[in-house]
Design a protein that fits this description.
- The chain has 107 residues and is of the alpha+beta class.
- Helix content is 47%, strand content 17%.
- The longest helix is centred in the N-terminal third of the chain and has 31 residues.
């Protein structure tokens, strides 16, 4: 065992540190991931481009950036959404006296 440690101690330390770092990042992302972001339910006739325009005062992204963000964070392939879909959008929820209030109301 000591011979193994002497030969591969740097590799073993590197692997352990990588695993610990990965675990910490995974926990951090799950805690801060989509918390505090607005969730909406898609209505009949809604499109990502329409939502980007309607909510343009609530976010600092171009319409294209908004659509790409929503696609990436909601696992959407293409910009097709369907009525009843729940989407996380890049609009922060405001905290007011411990109660979360959406900063914008969507349909």
């Amino acid at each position: 065992m000591k011979k193994l440690w002497n030969q591969y101690s740097y590799a073993i330390i590197l692997v352990v540190l990588s695993l610990v770092t990965s675990f910490i990042l995974m926990i951090h992302n799950s805690v801060s991931g989509e918390d505090g972001l607005m969730k909406i339910t898609v209505d009949e006739g809604d499109s990502l481009w329409q939502l980007a325009e309607e909510l343009s005062d609530e976010h600092m992204l171009s319409a294209k950036e908004f659509v790409q963000w929503v696609e990436r964070h909601n696992g959407i392939s293409g910009d097709r959404i369907y009525p009843g879909d729940e989407l996380v959008i890049p609009i922060a929820l405001e905290k007011d006296n411990g109660t979360e209030v959406a900063s914008s109301q969507s349909k």
